[in-house]
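stage 2 :: seqdesign
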């Protein structure tokens, strides 16, 4: 049985999806909504939190809740490290750091190993669509072909294996700020680890995208068939 919170959220959701409330419209204040629906203010806040999580509204501190303009969905394709499309622009900032904590574990390197961190933010116009931190052992950076448009936005070189883990979660404070989203709006978090044929980790990428405006697509390629000796003429 729907709760009061769910019923109110569904009523507001319908008003938004049918166009009664349009992008940019300010919702009535929480006290006014509480009076209209004859519920307590905490119940209204719970209903609004649901709509914020769905990306239908956004709360601006000191101003109120506003209907969000729908964002075009972007697609992350497995093995690329960041979303890549002609209408997306990516800024890249590099920093030299030392391997510690979680990053050291991901890269399977000794503590304090020199690394290069690539901090990538992808934009559609002025709107940030994804943030990523890509870590590469510094002795591998010259071989990474940084001048090529295929890296870090492109697929890994042939001969590498990529493991990717996808999780839906709330954003970190840093991610929420960089993506300009509410801390209650879920993100699609992708951890991508690339290995060479010897099992050495070539790079680790930590990517976050607002989950209500992104898809992740993974394509599986069958292993190439090797000719056996008895197949030879």
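stage 2 :: out
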């Amino acid at each position: 049985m729907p709760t009061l919170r769910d019923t109110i959220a569904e009523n507001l959701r319908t008003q938004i999806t049918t166009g009664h409330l349009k992008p940019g419209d300010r919702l009535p204040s929480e006290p006014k909504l509480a009076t209209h629906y004859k519920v307590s203010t905490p119940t209204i806040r719970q209903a609004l939190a649901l709509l914020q999580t769905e990306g239908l509204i956004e709360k601006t501190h000191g101003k109120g809740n506003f209907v969000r303009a729908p964002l075009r969905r972007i697609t992350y394709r497995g093995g690329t490290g960041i979303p890549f499309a002609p209408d997306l622009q990516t800024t890249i900032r590099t920093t030299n750091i030392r391997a510690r904590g979680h990053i050291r574990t991901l890269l399977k390197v000794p503590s304090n190993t020199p690394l290069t961190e690539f901090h990538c933010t992808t934009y559609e116009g002025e709107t940030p669509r994804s943030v990523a931190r890509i870590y590469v052992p510094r002795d591998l950076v010259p071989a990474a072909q940084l001048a090529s448009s295929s890296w870090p936005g492109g697929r890994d070189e042939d001969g590498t294996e990529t493991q990717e883990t996808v999780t839906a979660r709330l954003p970190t404070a840093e991610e929420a700020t960089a993506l300009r989203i509410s801390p209650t709006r879920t993100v699609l978090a992708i951890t991508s680890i690339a290995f060479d044929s010897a099992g050495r980790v070539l790079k680790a990428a930590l990517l976050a995208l607002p989950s209500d405006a992104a898809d992740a697509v993974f394509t599986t390629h069958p292993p190439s068939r090797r000719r056996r000796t008895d197949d030879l003429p």
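stage 3 :: structure notes
- The chain is about 20% helix and 35% strand.
- The CA atoms of residues 177 and 183 lie 9 Å apart.
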